[in-house]
Fold this sequence. Notes:
globular; NADH Oxidase; single chain; four-stranded antiparallel β-sheet
Amino acid sequence: MTAPVFDQSFRDHLDTLFQWRRDVRHFRRDPVPEPVLDHMLALTCTTPSVGLSQPWRFMRVDDPVRRQAVKEDFTRCNARALAARDETDSGDYARLKLAGLDDAPHHVAVFCEPDPLQGRGLGRMTMPETVQWSAVMAIHGFWLAAQAHNVGLGWVSILDPDRMKTLLDAAPSWRFMAYLCVGYPEEEHDTPELERRGWETRAQARKHWIQR
Length: 212
Ligand SMILES: Cc1cc2nc3c(=O)[nH]c(=O)nc-3n(C[C@H](O)[C@H](O)[C@H](O)COP(=O)(O)O)c2cc1C
């Protein structure tokens, strides 16, 4: 295959994709067509991974009983997180919506296989955590692929990882990485919801260069 030359028009579209990718907490209930979900996963599987280990495990959670149990765990963990905050910002925290678990038509739990056979151990002797980093990169790929299909994704991490493994009957060696709500967003924004609600502001890009 001839290598493509990415032109300015492509870069403009890519900028738009990055600008409009959001963490989504308000979903419509209509499902995303299966071929779209499959394409998102196919793109995700092109993500780089240490030693080409592809250690990510994307699990569809469709069972309403399991979904309800995840929701209950979120409610418990979120209440604990709220209680742990000092009173100066607990009101702000309480007002945030930190999960779209009720409405998102698709739930995807992501695990990492910490010592996969695939990749034959390459590149991870001194930094075994690169396996987990690979799984996180895959989640980012999934997120961008979703946005390219106008599909929203919300990352829920206010969960007990051990409980998630039990609830979702994960393999004992797997590490819980993320719980993703997936579906069409109720609204589109080019700024993070946490910024719009006054919780935090994004720093200017130039502040992220460190020089030595
Ligand atoms: C590792 C990770 C964990 C996150 N966990 C949560 C979460 O539990 N609940 C939530 O509402 N958002 C969560 N988010 C989303 C962030 O709040 C969001 O990415 C950030 O506010 C910037 O907004 P944006 O993604 O729309 O640009 C998480 C994001 C990452 C990368």
